[in-house]
Amino acid sequence: QVQLVESGGGLVQAGGSLRLSCIASGHTFTRLGMAWFRQAPGKQREFVAAITLNELIVDYADFAKGRFIISRDNTKNTLYLQMNNLKPEDTAVYYCAAEVSGTTYYVPTKSYEYDHWGQGTQVTVSS
Q: What is the pLDDT of residues 19-30, one digit of tens each?
C-alpha cells in the first residue's frame, strides 16, 4: 500500500519558481516509477513529467521542457518537481503519482498507467 504526500505549492508571480515535493511511504521507493500530473478546473488531468525508478530516464510534457526539472532522492523516498519561470497557465493542482513495479526503461505518461496518487498541492501563478 503506497501513500503519497505532496507539498510545496503556493501562490507566486509569473516568472517565479516553486519546488514541489512528494514523500512516498508504504512501499519500496526504489521500485516505484514516479510522475507529476496537474489538473486545472474544468480540464482533464494532464501529464507533466515522469522519472524511472533508477533515475536514468525522464520525460516531460512539451510545456514543461526547459522550465521544469523532475528528480528523486531514493535515500529520502522523495520525488521533486522544480518549476521555474512559472506562467499563469501553470495554475493547477499538481499531483504526485506512483507506479508499482516501475521499470528502468519506460516512463508511463498516461494517468491510468499509475496506481497511486497523492492528494495534490495547489499552484497558483499570478500575472
A: 999 999 988 888
CA separation for the pair 91, 124 (Å, rounded): 5
Residue 29 contacts residue 4 (beta carbons within 8 Å): no
Burial state string for 43-70 with b = 16 or more CB within 10 A and e = fewer than 16: eebebbbbbbbeeeeebbbeebeeebeb
Name the nearest CA neighbour of 61 among 109, 107, 116.
109
Backbone angles phi, psi at 30, to 5 degrees: -70, -10
- Give the tens place of pLDDT for each residue, 65-91: 999 999 999 999 999 999 999 999 999
